[in-house]
Amino acid sequence: MKWMSNSRPGSGATSIAINHEPVSPRWGFAVSSGILGWILDAFDFFVLVFLVDVLANHFHVSKGEIVWTITITLATRPIGAFVLGSLADRYGRRRPLIASVLYFSIITACTPFAPSYAVFVVLRALYGIGMGGYWGIGASLVMESSPSRWRGLFSGVMQGGYSGGYLLAAVALRVIEPRFGWQWMFLCGLAFAVLIVVLTWLSPESLSWQKNRPASFAEVAGVVWQHKKDFVYLVLMMTAMICLSHGTQDLYPDFLKTVHRFSNNVISNLAILYNVGAIIGAMVVGHYSDQLGRRVAILLALVICLLSIPLWAFGSTIIMLAIGSFVMQFGVQGAFGVIPAHLNELSPDSVRSLFPGVVYQLGVLISAPAVVIEFALRKHFGYQWALTIFEMCVIFVLFLIFGFGPERKGHNFHA
What we know:
Helix content: over 70%
Number of helices: 19
Shape: globular
CATH superfamily: MFS general substrate transporter like domains
Radius of gyration: 20 Å
């Protein structure tokens, strides 16, 4: 059985049925481009995390002022989600996705050439707009293009790409920075961006978008307003999830350097290890969410996070810290690996780029001070207890959110 569509290669294209479900024959291009773009986005973000000391010395500012730019990047992401998400719902996923990738890649490449700290701050703010625009489009393209029976798996693979970008940044710290200089860590993503643009151009347009395309931007706004209660709940959910993720990732390299006096090579090795755990966790929990349900899978992953805290924060040897950080990120990204599927299933069909994208990035905006709060808490409680107190509070809130929240696992995007 087939559904036919008259469109050129790279746009609508002919679709086929898999188990009575319409999918495009080139859906693999769409899924690949969405996943790889998120890997690149994360790589460009986490490069800065590994270069806090270098950048502080280069711009003659304190480490706290460099850490503050992480908050600036997170705070500007909703702008991109709103603008590019609206365009993706109105005109299709592909072209806004290409625009987003090119935009944030070029801004990142300009970063090492900033003549002053003020310009550096502006560039990181501009980068946040591109980063924010990407997730909603990429997630909707991946979720709408992949067969529903694999939705949980590809949800985990996509979100695991965030840890994949973190892992690549850790590798770059060891391979690129010593040989070519720290500036090249901001430049090397350009080649990857070209690959993603080519894959996106070869991708079919989403069948779900073609079927549910809104007639105007006014209709887009109207649909969002009709679902305002769902919107508020999901923003709360994403705020807590972002606190969980960034609270365990962004300052951990600095924690290892400050508390345990590890060298950059040791920190890089640990980061590679715990990001492997994160990628495995995202794929495993994402996959099993198709059997267990989205909420149950996330709650089980949060239990794993709780159990890892003693070794993750208070481990006294490198082996203990390695095990703790591996298990922590398995749980954190295991929970997060379910989010692309869960959030897209709970979003209205006609605004599946804008709605989850803005929800995700407003969660990022509200949680933006999380890293600064953690950094400040260490002055009062010490680094170990600062990380522990913050994450325990976040996990408790998430238990409430997912324990009593809705679920639409297996929702038919083409209905």
